[in-house]
Amino acid sequence: MKVNCEENHFHNQIKRRRVFSNDEINELFSQASEENLRNDMMARKKGYGCGKVDLSEADSQSGEKKKTRLLDQVSANLRARHYSRKTEQTYLGWIKKYILFHDKRHPSEMGEKEINKYLTYLALKVKVSASTQTQALSAILFLYRHVLKQEIGNIGDIIRARKSRRLPVVMTKEEVKQVIINLSGEIWIIVSLMYGAGLRLTECLRLRVQDIDFSGNQIMIRSGKGDKDRLTMLLENLKEPLMDHLKKVRQLHQKDIQDGWGDVSLPHSLSRKYPNASRDWQWQYVFPQEHRWTNKQTKEQGRHHIDESIVQKAVRSAVFRSGITKHATCHTFRHSFATHLLASGYDIRTVQELLGHKDVKTTMVYTHVLNRGGRGVQSPLDAL
Predict the structure, then answer these.
(1) How far apart (Å, rounded) are the C-alpha atoms in residues 152 and 70?
(2) Active site annotation includes 145
């Protein structure tokens, strides 16, 4: 097997030092095809290899080398299995941290021992929660099983982070009212939907015009957590403000079309199936961003939904102005929605369906919130 001078020079540099430059890190995040990997392993046994896999794959047609980074391969595998973008970002982050923890060694050269060492480090040194440690393990196992095609055996005795029981932060009805009073415009509508219908922030921002059924008094949540669809109610008090908001959004969309734009991103491959659907009113976001985005590939402009951080900052400011000392976030409105429904006597199965929980045990946590403190028991001091 022949190894050219350029590759020898690169591998000699790797042998001489442990700390690499950014360009070399990108090289280390590259992965060859299975055939090249097998050839490299054979070369090592014969003494030809330099301890690293072949980092590029030759293009037989042009003679140029196409380089595929390891993290790009992870992204491709995650998207092929329809993982959410947030899960993709989280997995990529854990895989990168795992590689950096082991001095930027290639994952194909590591195994059960290195995985055990990293997970134990997370529990003892970083002191992550049990769910965070499990998340890191899932990301690393995905890398080995689906990208590197390596089966991981017994990892051994891992020091697991201790599971803690946490109750969600819930605001009273009066506290919710005080926060909402300090909001205005489309942020007021968004927060009202989160509390009034139990929506997650991302579910609310991803609403399309066709998802709101004014005549049926219901909202369709598409591709929610776990890629599940569900129906929830549309508040009577929000109908008129929401209609007025959509009138303004439609005028903005018509202006974009007159300017030659007006496209919106479509889920999955619908843009190929329906080429002109991206400009249809029914596919537009209910809460579009202020400025148009530009597609880097097609150079076309359109409007995505507003960023999560805009709503989060507005809610944080409203909580501060209302004088509430609880650590209330956007998700607190969803917790409050469920707790207030159960306190009003609604069946827990109904609340589970509205929230989109897979298991009723997840919904049961709100019953524990109802039983806290003096809500269920009278203190003996009050009886004196």
Answers:
(1) 18
(2) no
